[in-house]
Amino acid sequence: MTRQSIPPQTQSLTAAEINQAIASRWPNIASSCVALGSDHATAVVCPGDDAIRPGGYISGPTLFGTADAALWYLVFGVIGRIEPLALTSELSIRFLSPAVGEKVYARAVLNRANRRSVIGTVTVWTDDNQAEPCATAQGTYIIPATGD
Prior knowledge:
It is a single chain. The chain is an alpha+beta fold and 148 residues long. The protein has a single domain, classed as Thiol Ester Dehydrase, Chain A (Roll). The chain has two helices and nine strands, in the order E-H-E-E-E-E-H-E-E-E-E. It has helices at 15-25, 60-79, and strands at 3-4, 31-36, 40-45, 52-53, 57-58, 87-95, 104-113, 117-126, 135-142. The strands form two sheets. Strands 1, 2, 3, 6, 7, 8 and 9 form a seven-stranded mixed sheet that branches. A hairpin with a 3-residue loop joins strand 2 (31-36) and strand 3 (40-45). It is globular.
């Protein structure tokens, strides 16, 4: 059950708007937002050769970064605006199985939100094994004060 104490947003933000804003500000960010709602967000990363470990496994830092990106995008969906200064407060991850594939996906689901933080749970999987997650994570993002 999702508990949210932030009033529902009337302005809806799209994944395309997030991707455009991030690309203009940080063109080297590897992730992109592929789905967004007021209580969920999905990120995707296409790992480069430097993210592949022996055996063809996608590195743990790549999985972690994709989970973190999904939570960042979730914050935008929850508050209804792109807030580049939202920061990771904490994020823990549990690796469940080796990740192999061309793409890594992470879906963040809202657990709780208030004026200053967003807490979410993330499921991470690859395009080669969509039925089984390769990692799960939970984290908190801090939203900067807006002076209200």
